[in-house]
Amino acid sequence: MSLIVPILLLGLLASLSPTTIVVFILLLGTARARVNALAFLVGWAVSLTVVFAASFSAGASHPLQGTSGRTSVQLAQVLLGVALVAVGIRQWRRRHVARPAAAAVDRHARRLNPWSAAFVGVLKQPWAITAAAALVVLDHHTGLVAAAIAFVLFTAASTASVALLFLYYARQPGEAEARLTALRLRLTAAGPALFAGVAVLVGAIVALDGLHRLLGG
Question: pTM of the prediction?
Answer without folding.
Answer: 0.77
